[in-house]
Amino acid sequence: MPADREKLLEIENITVRFGSGRKKVTAVRNVSFDIYKGETFGLVGESGSGKTTIGRAVMRINELEEGEIRYKGARISGKIPKEMDREVVKNIQMIFQDPTASLNDRAKVDYIVSEGLHNLKIYGSEEKRRKIVERALLDVGLLPEFADRFPHEFSGGQRQRIGIARVIVMEPELIVADEPISALDVSVRAQVLNLMRTLQREKGLTYLFIAHDLSVVRFFTDRLAVIYKGAIVELAPTEKLFANPLHPYTRALLSAIPQPDPEYERHKKVETYDPSLHHAADAPEWTEIEPEHFVRIDIFGPKSENA
After folding, report:
1. Structural domain contains residue 280
2. d(Cα 36, Cα 1) in Å, to the nearest integer?
3. Residue stretches of the chain with pLDDT short of 50
4. What is the pLDDT of residue 304?
């Protein structure tokens, strides 16, 4: 990554645990990565791998047990000053996975979209607030008159657009997108992704894009981190990772991607990752194998009897 690019978010050796005593579970362990201004950074892995936990830690929903998260060089994890908290709330927003559960069915779209404006009191007059809401709805491809309707009157794709409008009225710099299309019909997924790309270009947005579908992240992200059981095992520019997957878990994920070719599907071999064959539990090492391409653990052979 060019040295002159601005680091917008820095995640350094974070660990997140839930529960207490013997029931304590480590959801994320010793995770580190940076996100640069204007890029789309992808975080991909199976369900339960810790992707959403990291996203919620960035949003300051999940507390860290170890490590630190910095936004524009300033620490935002743990207890922070009130003014910093206000800046984080405004500049870091989240698009949730389920567009139905994330919207209040008892509130009209007008209130849902402008809730953040109300909370921070940053809209000025009531007339200006209405115009901000109308502009946001137009930006996501919805009519301004939809502001007086309720969420249950819309389709899944439209509800997700309302969720995106609720985010962009805050004029954020960083958006944590937690599987924003996984709950949508296949026919509207591309529309939502294209909308997000357009908004990124027009408003200078930066995305942390969380997903489990590798075929989606390949065409939407600039860099990609693969996470397995709470730890990142490989990180690289997206095309470089797809062209040369080094970690066996990454190769297993890629081998499972369905292809629109019946003949290929009939003969393809899906790889299975066996962590017991590697040194991950003993002495994981984060190594730059080639420029900007990092991989974790010993990938060059089976575990020896003395390891």
Report:
1. no
2. 9
3. 280-283, 299-307
4. 44
* Placement of tokens 């489990």 in the chain: 212
Based on C-alpha coordinates, what's the Rg of the chain?
A: 21
The CATH number of the domain where 220 resides is what? Answer: 3.40.50.300
Q: How far apart are CA 276 and CA 89, in angstroms?
A: 42
Beta pairing partners, 209: 42, 177
Q: What is the Cα–Cα distance from 139 to 226, expressed in whole angstroms?
A: 32
Residue 294 within a domain: no
User: What's the CA dihedral at 155, 159, 165, 168 to 10 degrees?
Assistant: -130
**Tokens standing for residue 305:** 């009897």
- Note the pTM of the prediction, 2 decimals: 0.89
Tell me how crowded residue 180 is: count the other CB atoms within 10 A of its CB: 27
d(CA 265, CA 118): 52
Residue 298 belongs to a domain: no
Structural domain that includes position 153: 7-229
DSSP state string for the chain: --TTS-EEEEEEEEEEEES-GGG-EEEEEEEEEEEETT-EEEEE--TTSSHHHHHHHHTTSSPPSEEEEEETTEE-SSS--HHHHHHHHHHEEEE-S-TTTTS-TTS-HHHHHHHHHHHHT-S-SHHHHHHHHHHHHHHTT--GGGGGS-GGGS-HHHHHHHHHHHHHTT--SEEEEESTTTTS-HHHHHHHHHHHHHHHHHHT-EEEEEES-HHHHHHH-SEEEEEETTEEEEEEEHHHHHHS--SHHHHHHHHT---S-HHHHHH-------GGGSSTTT---EEEEETTEEEES--SSPPPTT-
Domain tally for the chain? 1
pLDDT digits (tens, 9 = 90+) for 4-46: 789 999 999 999 999 988 889 999 999 999 999 999 999 999 9
Structure tokens at 238: 């997206």
Q: Report yes or no: 46 and 107 within 8 Å, Cβ to Cβ.
A: no
